[in-house]
TrEMBL record:
Pfam families: COMM_domain (PF07258). This is COMM domain-containing protein. InterPro entries: COMM, COMMD9. Residues 118-178 form the COMM domain. It comes from Lithocarpus litseifolius.
Length: 234
């Protein structure tokens, strides 16, 4: 199927300028989350002199596939030509390579902005409400201060919510489970590190003992030889 899609790339040669192909690539990247709307599709059809969407859709799929590989796999400028099979016309390869190189930095920056960054907990306070009311169960009021480090929405965020006793117990049970899992992970890492460290120390001690034994054997052999020579002289 992928091979047949590449066969639709020559439709780009119908455009009357490099700027038209550039517009198509930019429109596809701009609508990577939503898809082209009817206005954009009409513009692209006019640029390529296409009568219906049945000719346009395979070309758009092929170009989106090319853009996705180029951006998400972080292909270097020198390796862009490897994205194209041999069946793609050389002039098309050169044109698309030049345009992809042009937009590489901009699209990579957009991709980093798209990445989801979860806010982190900066501070937490709590208080009790309804403690004196007989007809209303007391609840815990939790105040969280979160720090959002995302580039597009950086700053602090205040979150406030209430927890009744049954909800609080359920949450605490989950938190204890998370704590135990984290403790087990830390224990496994510690055991691995201890084993690794112990192995290296054992190896070094073993090497030292081997050298010591060899050295002692050599000294004993030398002493025996010298003693024998002295006996012969005597």
């Amino acid at each position: 199927m992928e091979r047949s899609l590449w066969g639709h790339l020559p439709l780009l040669m119908r455009s009357n300028s490099k700027e038209s192909v550039e517009y198509i690539l930019q429109a596809l990247w701009r609508t990577r989350k939503t898809g082209l709307d009817s206005a954009d599709r009409h513009i692209v059809r006019d640029m390529l002199v296409l009568e219906n969407d049945s000719d346009l859709d395979p070309l758009l799929v092929c170009l989106r596939m090319l853009i996705r590989r180029f951006v998400y796999e972080n292909v270097s400028k020198d390796d862009i030509h490897k994205l194209f099979p041999t069946e793609v016309l050389p002039e098309l390869q050169r044109l698309l390579t030049l345009l992809l190189q042009k937009f590489q930095r901009e699209w990579r920056d957009d991709l980093l902005k798209d990445q989801v960054t979860l806010p982190r907990l900066k501070a937490m306070t709590w208080d009790m409400e309804n403690q004196d009311a007989e007809s209303i169960d007391p609840v815990a009021v939790i105040n969280l201060k979160l720090q959002n480090d995302a580039q597009s929405h950086s700053g602090e965020l205040d979150v406030k919510f209430q927890l009744a006793q049954d909800t609080l117990e359920m949450m605490l049970s989950s938190m204890y489970s998370i704590r135990d899992q984290l403790s087990n992970m830390v224990s496994v890492i510690f055991d691995f590190f201890f084993f690794f460290l112990h192995s290296k120390i054992f190896f070094k001690v073993q090497m030292w003992l081997s050298k010591y034994v060899l050295s002692s054997s050599f000294q004993d052999e030398t002493s025996t030889r010298n003693l024998s020579q002295e006996t012969n002289v005597m």
